[in-house]
């Protein structure tokens, strides 16, 4: 659920491209505004210089022709040739008084810029700055020619130029974002294939492989993914093989130990019972006071032999291949119920279609059930243990699977299936048969063990596990 709340990579990259594009447009707009301001000041400086030279020529002409009544200054000719909207031209006498002044009207096409732009533009560029050139006659400055642009007109023209860039940005930026998003969606389309491959691998499907991609980066990811899948498949196969061998070694050790106990310890106990019986007969004739001790020895030997029989039964299970899995498990459950002092804590339900299982599957299931029931018998916290074993037809290719359910009513953390051998050993046996195991505990009491094993096993597995 949280993955859907995270921003999409395509959207994030598109927003970054939009932000960078906006910054570029802003930089271009700032550049054009700076260049426009510089161009304006260059132009009005040239106009002020032209006006100053014109006024100097007028003054010299007055002196040459000795006509002091001629009008001075006369900026009509200069104003007529250079006048533009918002341009102001004036002559300022030496005492600071403006003698003559011309100003062009504002253009009606520029409109009124926003107040925020007006404030920012005036703070950055100071529109309306004057350009002055001194008017000198025979080395004496008689005044200066002044030219400037009306601040309102200059600001309006700057907004007009910037507005065109903003309009271009408003048109180009959404189109650019759409194109970038489409290109990214096309380029990142293989990530869905990569995600599907990872999900398959997460579900233990190590046959998942990624196809080659056009982009070099994605191709590198695909190669690493395929190499990892192959390594995992090989590693799990080797691990399963090692697990099968360990199980075989464990079963062989159990059989060897059972033979040793039966041949050595069992015979010794039988001999002790025989000697106790002989001593009982001798004591009955010669020393009756020794009869209780002889009976005690005989009872102790008998109890030890019963314990030995139970240990041998757990170490060396019956031949499942000859008796069948159902008969073997029924005998196992009946044995535990018989030793539970009249309290039937074990119940079992079997599917009648379990008689034709391979020996490896039958032996593995028997060992799993044996471990679970042994743990249940050792921990009295579970008052009832239910076992259910069924065969089901899988949906794919008509394969059959064996499902085992073991449920108990023990306390959480002290359940029948978690004690003793624990889940680790059971998982190893299930993994050796190519199955899967799940374990769930109840909120208050009880736990459920669910094992699913394919009914058909590879021949090498059967040979190893036999």
UniProtKB/TrEMBL annotation:
Where is it localised?
A: Membrane
| Species for this entry | Bradyrhizobium hipponense
Record Gene3D superfamilies? 1.20.5.1930, 6.10.340.10, Histidine kinase-like ATPase, C-terminal domain (3.30.565.10)
Q: Which UniProt keywords apply?
A: Kinase, Membrane, Phosphoprotein, Transferase, Transmembrane, Transmembrane helix, Two-component regulatory system
| Residue stretches spanning the membrane | 13-34, 165-184
Q: Which residues form the HAMP domain?
A: 185-237
Report the GO molecular function annotations. Answer: phosphorelay sensor kinase activity; protein dimerization activity
- Source organism's superkingdom? Bacteria
Which GO CC terms are listed, alphabetically?
A: membrane
Q: What is this protein called?
A: HAMP domain-containing protein
């Amino acid at each position: 659920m949280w993955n859907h709340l995270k921003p999409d990579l395509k959207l994030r990259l598109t927003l970054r491209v939009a932000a960078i594009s906006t910054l570029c447009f802003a930089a271009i707009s700032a550049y054009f505004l700076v260049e426009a301001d510089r161009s304006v000041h260059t132009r009005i400086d040239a106009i002020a210089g032209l006006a100053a030279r014109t006024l100097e020529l007028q003054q010299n002409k007055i002196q040459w022709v000795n006509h002091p009544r001629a009008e001075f200054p006369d900026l009509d000719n200069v104003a007529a040739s250079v006048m533009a909207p918002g341009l102001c031209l004036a002559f300022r006498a030496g005492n600071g008084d403006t003698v003559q002044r011309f100003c062009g009207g504002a253009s009606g096409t520029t409109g009124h810029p926003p107040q925020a732009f007006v404030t920012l533009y005036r703070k950055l560029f100071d529109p309306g700055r004057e350009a002055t050139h001194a008017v000198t006659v025979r080395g004496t400055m008689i005044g200066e020619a002044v030219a400037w642009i009306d601040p309102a007109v200059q600001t309006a023209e700057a907004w007009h130029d910037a507005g065109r860039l903003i309009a271009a940005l408003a048109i180009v930026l959404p189109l650019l974002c759409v194109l970038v998003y489409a290109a990214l969606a096309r380029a990142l389309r293989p990530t869905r294939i990569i995600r599907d491959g990872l999900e398959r691998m997460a579900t233990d499907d190590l046959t998942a492989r990624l196809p080659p991609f056009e982009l070099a980066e994605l191709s590198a990811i695909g190669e690493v993914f395929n190499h990892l899948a192959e390594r995992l498949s090989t590693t799990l196969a080797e691990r399963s093989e090692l697990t099968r061998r360990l199980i075989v070694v464990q079963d062989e050790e159990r059989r060897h130990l059972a033979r040793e106990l039966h041949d050595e310890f069992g015979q010794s106990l039988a001999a002790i019972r025989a000697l106790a019986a002989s001593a009982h007969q001798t004591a009955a004739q010669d020393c009756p006071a020794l009869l209780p001790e002889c009976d005690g020895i005989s009872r102790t030997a008998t109890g030890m032999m019963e314990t030995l029989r139970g240990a041998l039964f757990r170490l060396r299970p019956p031949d499942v291949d000859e008796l069948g899995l159902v008969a073997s498990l029924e005998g196992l459950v009946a044995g535990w119920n018989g030793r539970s002092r009249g309290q039937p804590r074990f119940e079992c339900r079997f599917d009648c279609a379990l008689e034709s299982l391979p020996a490896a599957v039958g032996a593995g299931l028997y060992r799993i059930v044996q471990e679970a029931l042994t743990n249940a018998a050792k921990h009295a916290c579970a008052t009832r243990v239910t076992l259910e074993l069924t065969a089901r037809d899988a949906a794919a290719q008509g394969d059959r699977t064996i499902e085992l359910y073991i449920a108990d009513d023990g306390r959480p953390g002290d359940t029948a299936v978690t004690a003793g051998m624990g889940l680790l050993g059971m998982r190893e046996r299930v993994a050796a048969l190519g199955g899967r195991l799940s374990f769930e505990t109840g909120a208050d009491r009880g736990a459920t063990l669910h094992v699913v094993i394919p009914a058909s096993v590879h021949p090498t597995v059967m040979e190893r596990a036999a």
